[in-house]
Amino acid sequence: MNPKNQIRNWEKLAARALSRLSNSLPRRKVGTVKQMDPREKRMRHFDQNIVGRTPLFHAAKKGNEEKVREMIYSLRGTGFGPPRLALIATKDVTGLTAADVAEQNGHEEIARLLRGEQGRMEYFE
Questions:
Q1: What is the secondary structure of 40-63 as a DSSP string?
Q2: pTM of the model
Q3: Model confidence pLDDT, tens digit, residues 56-82
Q4: CB of 114 within 8 A of CB of 68?
Q5: Is residue 60 within 8 Å of residue 98, measured between CB atoms?
Q6: Which of 30, 34, 38, 103 is in the most buried spot, having the most CB atoms within 10 Å?
Q7: 3-class SS at 83?
């Protein structure tokens, strides 16, 4: 058999297998928006991507101070193991915090806010 034909046959076989696999996966409904309760929404703040970054990291990187404030002040900042401190102190796989990422991207005010809030909670709690 001609090598080019052999490659084409393998490509067709792979395409069919991939098509069958994708057709067997469950489908999600598109267009329906479920309202999240406030607690579920706050828990989303702790979702991490593959490199360990939370939504707080992304808001700090973009310089979105309003979003950063909204995220950290929506969490409890007192008591045993306050979630606000846990979110601010979260490190990615390289060991950086959201304050470090903000500082690297030139957003000094956000870095100051995050470090100040972290220091306040560590000192007073």
A1: HHHHGGG---TTS--HHHHHHHHT
A2: 0.65
A3: 999 999 999 999 999 999 888 776 778
A4: yes
A5: yes
A6: 103
A7: helix
